[in-house]
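pinging the channel bc i need a second pair of eyes. not urgent but kinda urgent?? the chain im working w is below, pasted from the shared doc
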Amino acid sequence: FEDWQKLSEAIRGALEQKDRTVSLDEIRRVFESFGQDLYETLGFYERRAEAMAILLAEKDVVSRAELEARMDAIAASRGQRVDHAAKTVC
């Protein structure tokens, strides 16, 4: 596992255990809304991370813009950039 995958799972677990902010059933619902192209383009952990981002935005926990700004800051600190449209780090 990559570090981000472990961290993503830890965050999902914490959000599920603490106050059920995000549940596996909700993540599955979002998976089903992706459509075949996006579903097949993303790997398992990428799908989970995208589903959590969508759910957290739906529930007004964190907006997509806030999440992307934080991703950009982390990538920049590592000399990388995020292609949000392609959902990749360059």
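so The chain has a mean pLDDT of 88. and Helices lie at 3-19, 24-33, 36-41, 44-58, 64-77. — does that match what u expected or am i reading it wrong
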